[in-house]
Amino acid sequence: MKNIILFSLFIVFLLFLAGCSATSGCGKYYLAHENTCCLDKNENSICDVDETTRATTVVRERPYLLVQELCDASSRFVCVDKTITSNFIKLRLRLNKDELVTVSKISFPELTCSQTFTTPEMKYPDEQEFTIPCVINQDAVASALSIEGTTRNYLRYSNGQVYSTTPETPVSFAGKVSGAVGQ
Q: In this predicted model, what pLDDT tens digit does every residue of 145-181 receive, in sequence order?
């Protein structure tokens, strides 16, 4: 009988130890995990170490930028090419009329950028490249374009041969430029 009582107490003791070694043995704010106890301050049944070591990646994509690519240099010029960067705007213009034109200044009023030029006289269909320094701190621009200069017309015989030109006349051409700002 004595052996049975001792054996029963031994079994109860083992059950008590088994119950303690599970979650109750770790104490408040701790969780039994892989034969040890880990901290679980927010009591969500996840070890805090596992919560903080997970990599959290936030992906922020730039929104799509819808920009009208435009280079309208008036009816006098065809805008062959344009480049807009954070430091300058470059235009390649071709004279589109049968006249002589000298470009003396190009400006973009909305961007407060302008540049004066001492370029040779252009005649149809000459092309010239003009670089206007401009600090641009945005992803896209849209501005009016102002071209100032002088023009002279040809005087021709009926067979098309030039015999004279008119005197220089100051002229201003208006257009628009818009587009995304490149690097």
A: 999 999 998 887 888 787 788 899 999 999 999 998 9
| Cα dihedral: 179, 129, 136, 72 (round 10) | -30
CB 175 within 8 A of CB 101: no
Q: Is the distance from CB of 130 to CB of 115 less than 8 angstroms?
A: yes
From-to residues of CATH 2.60.40 in the chain? 70-180
- 70-180: which CATH number, 1.10.132, 2.60.40, 1.20.58, 3.30.230? 2.60.40
- Give DSSP secondary structure letters for 88-127: EEEEEEEE-SSEEEEEEEEEEGGGTEEEE--PPPEETT-E
Low-confidence ranges of the chain (pLDDT < 50): 21-23
- Look at residues 76, 75, 101, 96 and name the one whose alpha carbon lies nearest to residue 153: 101
